[in-house]
Amino acid sequence: MPEKPGSYEIKIEGIVQGVGFRPYIYRLAMQYNLKGWVLNSSSGVFIAAEGEKEPLQAFLQQLRQYPPSLAVIKSLTVQEVEERGYTEFIIKTSDDRQGKTALLSPDIAICDDCKTEVRDSLDRRFEYPFTNCTNCGPRYTIIKDVPYDRAMTTMDGFPMCPRCKAEYENPLHRRFHAQPNCCPVCGPHTWVVDRNGEMVRQDVRQLLKAGSIVAIKGLGGFHLAADAANRQAVTSLRQRKKRDRKPFALMVRDMETAHRYCVISQEEEKWLNTRSAPIVVLEEQKDTALPGEVIHPGLDTLGVMLPYTPLHYLLFDDELEILIMTSANISDEPLITDNDEALQKLAEIADYFLLHNRDIYNPCDDSVIRITALQTPQIFRRARGMVPGGIVIPADSPTVLATGGEMKNTFCITRNGEAFLSQHWGDLNHFNNYVNFQKGIKYFKKMLNVEPQTIVHDLHPNYQTSHWARQQKDVKRLEVQHHHAHMASVMAENGLQGEVLGLICDGTGWGTDAAIWGGEIMRGDYNGFTRLAHLKYMPLPGGDITAGKPYRMAMVYLYQALGEAGLDKTKSLLPDLTEQEKNLIVNRINNAREPLTSSCGRLFDAVGAILGICTINKYEGQAPAELEARADKYEKNHYEYHLEADDGVWLMDVLPMWRELLNDLQKGGRVGCIAQKFHLTLAEMFLETLLKLRDTTGLNRVVLSGGVFHNQILFIKMYELLTRQGFVVYYNQIVPPGDGGISLGQAIIASEVKG
């Protein structure tokens, strides 16, 4: 006798839309001779499946163990129901009546199948720059609402031609319900204009090879492109963009090209080829033909990515193999996404413009990562290809909105035990970035279908995020100290509970005593913290303005270490410091009129300035980055330092280091050796302090966070020293250790805090 049939209703939540889930289910149902249906809803994918028990169980097992490669299943629930008597298996129209809980997919880099098509002269999509399928293409940057259907994207103005529609409706085709599906007949198109907006018929590749600078509308915004091998073109781009020192990102034709210019580990190659296709910071090969001094002045690394859209892929040929591909925004302004805006703002920079008519709904910069010596990722900027992917957090609490920091801003919204970080917004002191931040919050709330019960902001009273949070009505508000948020971000992404020791090093963060913190050791959990140690306070001349003028902080350390004798050295060591500026700062210090800081970032600035490496920061973190690049990795010695207890708090004093460092400098010591000894001094000082604190607290888990830990010398040395002493060390891998990650820490604190 045949086995009694069964009937199941299945609900799947997670990233299950725009990833080929429904055709996968359809094919699986055909394989096991099942009847029923599958549909998208605002909350996920729903399946009704009927058939014999054994095939049904095999269907479920296959579904659980081998979902589509792009899918991320958060939950899968199965309910046995009465038979409905289905006669076939169909894919139903999407249902948006359910509450919006479906997760959005990040944008996905071009797949190999689509690459083959755009290079095949016999294919109807030959050299078509908007070729995509279920396995690749735009997602987040074009989605206006869920469920993820074409009408909810910026492709809604491009009706499919009969051939595209046939692919779209065929469950067995890899373009089944690929919402951006199109071809040259029915889809978006590109065109080239000069800076006056006049049409140009030349091939973009020829323009680039001739040395022109081209503004290219991409996936999440405009890039400025130039032939990276053309010194004159790169120099011209740097001059026109008024970008004196900040390194340019590169896009290379393929992996073979990447290997010719960079030293690439297996893990780095893996990341270059991921679906997110981030910029990966790589060691530059020696003696390449690239004009490195104008591509990445003062650094020994290159930021490299592979082409992640067909449009990018088609920019390269046998001659053109490596391009500058830098964001086209102007000095910390938001990404440019609109054609007219690009022509207006970039007319004095770009010679030509490669435009297209597919709108960008969500601006999204390129993600940037580095692979550490531990072969783990460290994120500088979490954006395209990663956002809006959720992060599992320890708490499943009422919805929280965390507003992040002022610089490198991201916000974070929690829902059902997951945290959703926005893309990188940049400096919110720029009005348009602040506007985009607010728009982004409205968008995320709509897409996630949530209304946060708690809003979290930084303790700093004058951050734009603090101002915005205080303006919101009928909602609970929580202030979180900046470095506590850094610590909590590591705890959250590592699923830690209970107390830890946190070594948090960055440029600035408002302290509970109204000083500017930044070199901190604390104990704590999500519910609170106690400050146990910090870099000894130094005056911060002019407050935040000093971040752009490292020579000021160098003068402070000279004065504090050597008194009047230190001031005498400023003429030779700090030529950017005027006599008038010096006298003003000294007067303010002597009268206790300058704010105080324990900032590790400003200490790095000061050392970079005193060594003549960087006296004025042309971009955030320039002095520390160039100091790291100049350090002689073979140097093994460190300088003296002093630890003293003050009312139960350890003060970490680096003035002894400064005296020895200046003595080395006076004797003609090599800058690279001095730079390395500085790094090692900090590592030894932090280690000794943490050993003392372990003895008194009994805590053996240490988290490392803060923007200073982008510095690989300090990060790796701390990891090695601490693990050698038996500490268990945790650090950021999913979110940036810098301020781009603190919104996660804020959110988990608000989710877990008691009282």
What does this structure look like?
Among the domains are: 5-91, Alpha-Beta Plaits, CATH 3.30.70; 104-187, Alpha-Beta Complex (DHBP synthase); 190-368, DHBP synthase (Alpha-Beta Complex), CATH 3.90.870.40. Helices cover 32% and strands 22% of the residues. Strands 6, 7, 8, 9, 10, 11, 12, 13, 14, 15, 16 and 17 form a twelve-stranded mixed β-sheet that branches. A hairpin with a 4-residue loop joins β6 and β7. α15 (550-562) crosses α19 and α19 crosses α20. The relative contact order is 0.09.
Name some characteristics of this structure:
alpha/beta, Alpha-Beta Plaits, DHBP synthase, 12-stranded mixed sheet, 7-stranded mixed sheet
A few lines on this structure:
The protein is an alpha/beta fold and 755 residues long.
Topology:
Layout: E1 5-15, H1 21-31, E2 35-41, E3 44-52, H2 53-65, E4 72-80, E5 89-91, H3 112-118, H4 162-169, E6 190-194, E7 199-200, H5 204-209, E8 214-217, E9 222-227, H6 231-241, E10 249-252, H7 255-261, E11 262-263, H8 266-272, E12 279-284, H9 292-295, E13 301-305, H10 310-313, E14 322-327, H11 339-345, E15 352-356, E16 368-371, E17 377-381, E18 390-392, E19 400-402, E20 412-415, E21 418-421, H12 431-448, E22 454-458, H13 464-471, E23 476-480, H14 482-493, E24 500-510, E25 516-525, E26 528-535, E27 538-539, H15 550-562, H16 564-568, H17 570-573, H18 579-590, E28 596-597, H19 600-610, H20 622-630, E29 642-646, E30 649-653, H21 655-666, H22 671-697, E31 701-705, H23 712-724, E32 728-731, H24 742-752
Parallel strand pairs: 2-5, 8-15, 10-13, 12-16, 19-22, 22-23, 24-31, 26-30, 31-32
Antiparallel strand pairs: 1-3, 1-4, 2-3, 6-7, 6-15, 8-9, 9-14, 10-14, 11-12, 12-13, 16-17, 18-21, 19-20, 20-21, 24-25, 25-26, 27-28, 29-30
